[in-house]
Every structure is written in structure tokens, then in C-alpha cells.
Amino acid sequence: MAYETKVRFGILGCAQISIKLCKALSKAPNATLIAIGSRSLEKATTFAKEQGLPESIRVYGSYEAVVEDDEVDAVYIPLPTALHVTWAVKAAERGKHVLLEKPVAMNVVELDRILEACEVSGVQFMDGTMWVHHPRTKKMKEALSDEQRFGQLKWINSCMAYNAGPEFLKNSIRMKPDLDGLGALGDIGWYSIQAILWSVNYELPKSVLAFPKATLNEDNVIISCGSSLHWEDGKSATFHCSFLSYITFDVTILGTKGSLRLHDLVLPFEESFGYGKYSESSEIDYGKIEQGMWCPKPNEHVVETEFSQDVWMIKEFADLVGKIKRLEMKPEKKWSDGSRKTQLVLDAVKESIQRGYESVEIVKS
To answer: Which of 30, 105, 268, 315 has the greatest number of C-beta atoms within 10 Å?
Structure first.
């Protein structure tokens, strides 16, 4: 499909993830990067040169300059979480569509300020979670929705971890309460929580209970933690997130008739080859299990993809922005709704830890 007009992006900040987004923007058929800004012109210029960005791209020595650029349609904001509310609100108030890196805010109060600004200005909001845009995600949802194959969902487990090392634990912004104070819970726990909510069509749990003995640093930033989630109809979920364990991005979803598993939620192992995989099991012969025989080997599904998931995210966001610009539709609210519910659960996990691992009920406001 040919696009006559591409959505013009500006990036606020030269974080490591910005490198990935620059590449994605160069591959998306309906988007283009036209501006990048940092806290200093020198840093922005160095970044642009190191990434081989075209000379036509505007390089600014402030975030404000990107937001104030009248030719920028949308901004990608990968700044420390504590700065999100300031710059997302400023961008929205200037009429810029907002692609905001996760975790989207320090708490739901800050997120509500961002979402209100986006709604008032009529701009699209989306968080920067990439896996939900991969074509295999749609195929997995189809499998979960097939009652004959999967049955009724009963339990979900997710583990997101990587061993960050002592230098990271000492100096990373994710360890600084005034910059990214949600630590592992915000950085990779976000993926687990969102995967759990995605599995249940974003139905909020009734309560959340953090597992005892979470690991916190001397500034009370979470390094490792886990939690259980409980629904009124009996569904439950558990997750663990950590900067102290071997790299793992697992999700397991169990139903009464089948299961779905994948070990590379955040970034598919084979994405560079144009596909992603997941495993599914169903139609078990329980008579054989009673005879001491194990379950059948899971089916491995391969989902081919034209683009990597970061490009799909840019493409989907830019499609929505393009339709808004052409006055064909209003901003799609499912993305802000999903982000807000994820933030609500994240806040409840943190509150449970702070309250000495007490159960916290989710208030559906």
C-alpha cells in the first residue's frame, strides 16, 4: 500500500531504545523521523551522527524545541518515567500525538493527567509496548478465544527477568527513585502485568497480593518482586520480575482444555527471520495420563511477519494518527484504556509491598 503522506515523528531524548525506534521509523511505510532533541545540542548531534541519520533531520538541543516544531505530527517519548507526565502533557497540549515508552507514569494519577491532556487535544495515545503489535499476538488471541481448543481460562503465569549486573544496579536510572523509581516492576513487570490483562481481555482483577520478601535497594526501588492476581470468577495469575535472575521472558496460559506458552514474549527469538513462534496444547487423552503416559507434544505455531514488532507498532500508531488527521475518526481509546488498567495493577502491587504484603483491592474508576 502506498502512503501519500507520512506521519512526521520527533523523538524526545537519545536513550538506547531511541536507536531501535529510529530504525523502525526508517522501515515503516507510513511514518518518517524529522526531528530529534536532547538536553544538549552536542548530545543530539552526536546521536544523529552515530546512528547515520539523514542530514535533513532537525537536531535540537532541547525537548521543548521538538514539541514546538509545527511540522512534527507525533512524538516518541523514551525519557525517564518521572519526566513522562511533564513532556507528554506538553506534547499533547501542542497537538502532538503521543507514543510514550513504558512504564507510562509513576502512578495512575500522573497517567490520568496525560490521558486527559490527550483527550482534550484530540490526539492519539499509545504506550511503547511492542509485543502486542506482533502478528503472532493476534494468532494467540484467536487460540485463546477458541472454546473447543482452549476451554475456560483458569490461570496465567509470567516471568520476566534479566541479570542486570552490579554496574546497572548501582548507576542505572531505573535504580533512581527520582527518575525511574518503579525499578524492575515498571521496567519488566509491566510486560507481565500487561500480558496477564491481555489474556483476560483487560478484565481487572478483584485483588492483588504481592509475594513476601521483595528485594529493594537502599532507596526502596524494587529490584525483584512477584505477585498474585485474583478475579471474582476464580481466575488467578502470578508473575515474577527481577533484575537478579537469568534472562527469561516467559508466559504460560492454562485453560480447561488447552494451554498456550511462549518463552520470548518481549522479543521473538526468530524475528529477524520474519516469524515468531508459540506453543499450544489441547485434546489430551486423559485415559492415557491415568495409565502413566504424559501429555501429547505441544503444537508449535509459526507466524510469518513482514515487519518486526517495533515497525508494526509504529505502523499501527501512524495509521491511527493518519485517520485522525484526515478527520475519518477520533483517537482510538483501547490503547489508553489498556495502559491505564496495567498502571492500576502495577500501582496495587507496589502498594501491597509498601503495606507489608497485604492484599490490595483494585478500585475500578
So the answer is: 105
From 242, 243, 211, select the one nearest 227 (Cα to Cα): 211
pLDDT of residue 28: 96
Res. 1 pLDDT band, cuts 50 70 90: very low
Q: Return the C-alpha cell found at 365.
A: 474508576
Number of other residues whose CB lies within 10 A of the CB of residue 365: 7
278-286, long-range: CB < 8 A, 24+ apart: 278/136, 278/139, 278/140, 278/303, 280/143, 280/149, 282/149, 282/150, 282/257, 282/258, 283/149, 283/257, 283/258
Classify 250 as helix, strand or coil: strand
pLDDT tens digit sequence for 306-351: 999 999 999 999 999 999 999 889 999 999 999 999 999 999 999 9
Q: Is the pLDDT of residue 122 over 50?
A: yes
Quick one: cell of 288?
492415557
Check: CB of residue 104 under 8 Å from CB of residue 339.
yes
212/66 Cα distance (integer angstroms): 44
pLDDT digits (tens, 9 = 90+) for 271-312: 776 667 778 877 655 555 555 555 667 888 888 999 999 999
pTM above 0.85, yes or no: yes
The cell for 134 is 506482533
- Please state, in angstroms and as integers, the Cα–Cα distance from residue 161 to each residue in 215, 225, 230, following that order: 13, 10, 23
H-helix or E-strand containing 106? Answer: none
Alpha helices by DSSP H, listed for the chain, are: 16-27, 41-50, 63-68, 84-93, 108-121, 135-145, 166-171, 177-180, 183-187, 189-199, 286-290, 309-325, 334-354
**What are the chain's domains?**
7-131 (3.40.50.720), 135-308+343-361 (3.30.360.10)
User: Long-range contacts of range 294-297, CB-CB < 8 Å, 24 or more positions apart?
Assistant: none
